């Protein structure tokens, strides 16, 4: 039997807190979503003033990143070269989603929506960095991959 790391509620809260801090500091009204390795929601938060559909878009970005194991920006680049890939079901190839890769395993994704796409990714990167910082304080595990 194989053992696999997974996100905890505490991990999700660490990510959300870091993302919120950056978004508030930059005055970006966003929604932030954290999903597990299967793309299922672990935590979603919509900041005051975030546009109404932003939580759904953030979830889709997080799910896309988790399941594809790559930043959604890279999928956005693929769509520019091959427009038909935009029609693939169940994914949003728009910058702002990052996978959370730990010990070579996808353990989830972070999605942010509500600001410009590169700003969304900036917020998601802060969450990934906060989780990495937390994990590095325990036995120096391998670096997370995402941005």
Describe the structure.
Helices cover 43% and strands 18% of the residues. With 147 residues, it is an alpha+beta fold. The chain has a single domain (9-136), classed as Beta-Lactamase, CATH 3.30.450. The protein has a four-stranded antiparallel β-sheet. A hairpin with a 2-residue loop joins strand 3 (97-102) and strand 4. Helix 1 packs across helix 4 (117-136). The termini are far apart. Residues 138-143 have low confidence and may be disordered.
From the structure above, extract its key features.
147 residues; alpha+beta; Beta-Lactamase; four-stranded antiparallel sheet; 4 helices; 4 strands; 18% strand; globular
Question: Can you describe this structure in just a few lines?
Answer:
With 147 residues, the protein is of the alpha+beta class. 43% of the residues lie in helices and 18% in strands.
Write the layout of secondary structure elements.
Layout (H helix, E strand, L loop, with lengths): L8 H18 L4 E6 L4 E6 L7 H15 L3 H10 L15 E6 L2 E9 L3 H20 L11
Antiparallel strand pairs: 1-2, 1-4, 3-4
The CATH homology group name: Haem-degrading domain
Rounded mean pLDDT score: 90
What is the top-level CATH class?
Alpha Beta
Total number of domains: 1
What's the main sheet like? 4 strands, antiparallel
Spatial order of the strands forming the largest sheet: 2-1-4-3
């Amino acid at each position: 039997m194989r053992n696999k790391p997974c996100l905890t509620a505490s991990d999700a809260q660490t990510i959300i807190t870091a993302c919120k801090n950056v978004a508030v500091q930059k005055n970006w009204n966003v929604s932030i979503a954290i999903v597990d390795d299967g793309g299922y929601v672990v935590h979603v938060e919509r900041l005051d003033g975030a546009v109404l559909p932003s939580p759904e878009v953030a979830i889709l970005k997080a799910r896309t990143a988790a399941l594809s194991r790559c930043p959604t920006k890279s999928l956005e680049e693929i769509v520019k070269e091959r427009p038909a890939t935009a029609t693939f079901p169940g994914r949003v190839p728009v910058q702002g989603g990052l996978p959370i890769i730990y010990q070579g395993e996808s353990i989830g994704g972070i999605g942010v929506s509500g600001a410009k796409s590169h700003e969304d990714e900036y917020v998601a990167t802060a969450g990934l960095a906060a989780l990495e910082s937390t994990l590095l304080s325990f036995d120096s595990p391998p670096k997370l991959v995402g941005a």
